[in-house]
Amino acid sequence: MSNAPGTPTASIGLRKAAHVGISVGDLDRSVAFYRALLGTEPVVRDETMHGPGFAQSQGLPVTKLRYATFNLDDLGIDLIQFLDPAGEPAQGAANRPGTMHLCFLVDDVYAVHGRMRDAGFDFLGEPYTFAEGEVNPADALGTQVAYFNDPDGTNLEIIAPRGGFARPQ
């Protein structure tokens, strides 16, 4: 089986996300980080998965992992620590193909950024509001963003979208 995706030949029509999985180096450290970020406890913690069938489904020779899950209003976040085989840390800079980011919707990025900074969260830069001529579509003008990482370098964002970046209801 090839690791490279082929060219899709038909529209499948997936419309809803169930969860995002984030590989972590230390489950306990990551649970503490996301507990502080989300202000909630995980719905499951220290669960395990292993076995040859599961390993094969992930393209691995063997697998043993432990995980925790946080539920947001519209998405689950699975934090997954691979015990066997343990992986190497990713170099997850935003401009590297294949990296992703998880974005949290807020009403006011500057206010949330201030609360997060006061609580000890580090940001990659200062919050930003898109100005005229910097964003397309033009009705997204005024969208606020700020970017930060979790303890393993996963790219995270807070956004207060406007116009063209607003989420469909």
User: What's the gyration radius in Å?
Assistant: 18 Å
- Distance from first to last alpha carbon: 39 Å
Please bin the fraction of helical residues: 10-25%
Order of helices and strands: EHEHEEEHEEE
How many β-strands, per DSSP? 8
Query: What proportion of the residues form beta strands (DSSP E)?
Result: 25-35%
Strands of the largest sheet, in order across it?
A: 1-4-3-2
| SS class | alpha/beta
Q: How many helical stretches?
A: 3
Largest sheet: 4 strands, mixed
Mean pLDDT score, rounded? 87
Gross geometry: globular
Subunit arrangement of the protein: single chain
Question: Low-confidence parts lasting 5 or more residues at pLDDT below 50?
Answer: none
Task: Provide a short characterization of the protein structure.
This protein is α/β, with parallel strands linked by helices and 169 residues long. It contains three helices and eight strands; from the N terminus they run E-H-E-H-E-E-E-H-E-E-E. It has a four-stranded mixed sheet with strand order 1-4-3-2. A four-stranded mixed sheet has the order 5-8-7-6, covered by helices on one side.
